[in-house]
Specification:
Blueprint: E1 3-9, H1 12-24, E2 28-29, H2 41-51, E3 71-75, E4 80-86, H3 93-106, E5 119-127, H4 133-144, E6 154-155, E7 159-166, H5 175-183, H6 188-200, E8 210-213, E9 218-223, H7 227-236, H8 245-251, H9 257-261, H10 264-273
Parallel strand pairs: 1-4, 1-5, 5-7
Antiparallel strand pairs: 2-3, 3-4, 6-7, 8-9
Length: 274
């Protein structure tokens, strides 16, 4: 497989949703051990793991594992390998650059995998959050020095680029907006009741929605509560007790094969890959 698609994601929620779409479209898990992995990628990732052992060169809490894909899928028909990187958030431009450089540097090495034999596609997925999706694209274009557009593939001599911004409307939105639109129609009562439960049990003290520090009994200032994430979580506990939203998104039948096949959004996303 000489067609390599690198996918930059904010977190595992995105990865599990995108992979679910790809599974429906004939992508399968790439289960090879790293020593048997598509080269030169196998040695690249093995070396990153080896660097993890150099504890003296690291700071406590620093984790460069984002350089290793969290999931690998392949499509035999397209001869395509898809590597998903969990970047741990959206404000990670420095880390994204390191991953991008890592792959681009492979093509400058003198071996049997020359630029004519390896074709890289780089796809970026972000939430619009509280701004129009165009703002997120503008930031990405500044980061990459490109002119990407939402849902449009940009082809260059050595690389192919694309991006998708999860949004609800022109004012913004996020992945959870798309997930709820897919999950709720066939499970109306469950998700309505989850929403009612959350609204009836909302914590009124703002600090109760922040991380608690047991060392001194205080709270951090950033609020962590997101109502749409909580609705998905509450509904998901009916199928997967104690599981995080990433597992619920990937494993529950709240989003079915038919839901994906009939969703214009899912069909738009798959076009970026195929």
């Amino acid at each position: 497989m000489n067609n390599i698609t690198i996918v930059f994601c904010e977190g595992m929620h995105d990865i599990n949703f995108l992979s679910k779409i790809l599974y429906v479209h004939n992508y399968k898990d790439y289960k090879k051990k790293l020593k048997e992995f598509q080269e030169p990628l196998g040695n690249l990732f093995l070396n990153i793991f080896k660097e993890q052992k150099d504890l003296e060169a690291r700071k406590i809490g620093f984790n460069p594992i984002y350089k290793v894909p969290s999931l690998a899928l392949f499509n035999e028909k397209n001869e395509e390998l898809v590597l998903f990187h969990n970047m741990g958030g959206d404000n990670r431009s420095s880390e994204r650059k390191k991953v991008l450089d890592m792959y681009q540097n492979l093509l400058s090495e003198e071996d049997d995998f020359s630029p004519s034999n390896l074709n890289f596609k780089f796809l970026y997925f972000f939430d619009a959050d509280d701004s129009p999706k165009e703002n997120r694209i503008a930031d990405l274009n500044t980061e990459l020095e490109l002119t990407l557009e939402h849902l449009t593939i940009l082809e260059q001599e050595n690389y192919t680029w694309g991006c998708y911004i999860f949004h609800k409307d022109n004012d913004g939105g996020c992945l959870e907006d798309i997930l709820l639109d897919l999950m709720k129609p066939s499970n109306e009562t469950i998700f309505d009741n989850a929403k009612v439960f959350i609204s009836q049990n909302t914590l009124t003290e703002p600090n109760r929605k922040c991380e608690y520090k047991p060392t001194d009994g205080t709270y951090k200032t950033q609020q962590k509560f997101r109502d749409k994430k909580s609705i998905i979580s509450v509904a998901g506990q009916l199928q997967f007790s104690g599981m995080a939203n990433a597992v619920i998104i990937g494993k529950s039948d709240y989003i079915t094969k038919a839901d994906i096949e009939n969703s214009p959004i899912c069909q738009d996303i798959i076009k970026l890959f195929t």
